[in-house]
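Sanity check record (used in CI):
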Amino acid sequence: MKLQGTANQPFPASNLAPAPDFEALIEAAGDLIYTLNLEGRFTFFNQAVERVLGYPPSELLGEPFVRILTPESAQVASRHYDQGLAGKENTPFFEVEALRRDGTIVYLEVRAGSLIRDGVLVGRQGIARDINELKSLQSSVADKLQRMTLLEERTRIAMSMYTRIAALIYEDQGKGLAGDEVLREVQTTITRVTAEKHGLTAFDLKLLGMLAKGLSNEEIAREACRSPHTIKDHIKRIMLRLGAKRRAEAVACALRLGLLVFEP
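Expected output for Transcriptional regulator, LuxR family:
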């Protein structure tokens, strides 16, 4: 018995799979597909342009491709376009920042090539893929790596500082400061750096200490040899710097930051 579809008996034409509908495939593609003429103007878009860029295809036909790109990306794409026409492109891939119809930016990865008809170069064609999510993921990973690097550096500095403090504390007291004095110096330095980071002066720290003791503006003014009005303004500025709405909140914030150290 002979099998259909062999060299002896080929498949009937009716049994052959239909040829692919390339036009339907292009229109159904999720990626943006385009063609450009030799002037760099769009001559074709598939329907994905409306999803990716927010433009109906008809609105961009005949427009130069640089219209939808940021200035920097327009330079990148133009350079690639010129190299492609000259047959000197190094890679078919490049990335651009495209401007959506609503003004927002979308990152596109483009794969471009020459458009040849009857052996003649008539323009360029390409596929552009929306890589916004990929860029966001890359940025998130880079940010996490940066934070981890910073944390490792801070840990290294802290460990170095603690090692130095321990060495100073256990040194022969005749050769340097006593351990308690070393610790007080370290605490003073840390407090000063933290205060400067929050825009607070040594006088501000003194005022915070008196606030923590429950002194009124008048009592603080007498202690600090300033007018009550001046003290009131200073306290308002301190509260603003610490993001506090009440005096008690300012004291609590200062304690949390290690700005207040009560002597025994």
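Residues 195 and 201 are 7 Å apart (CA to CA). If this sentence no longer matches the regenerated tokens, the check is flagged for review.
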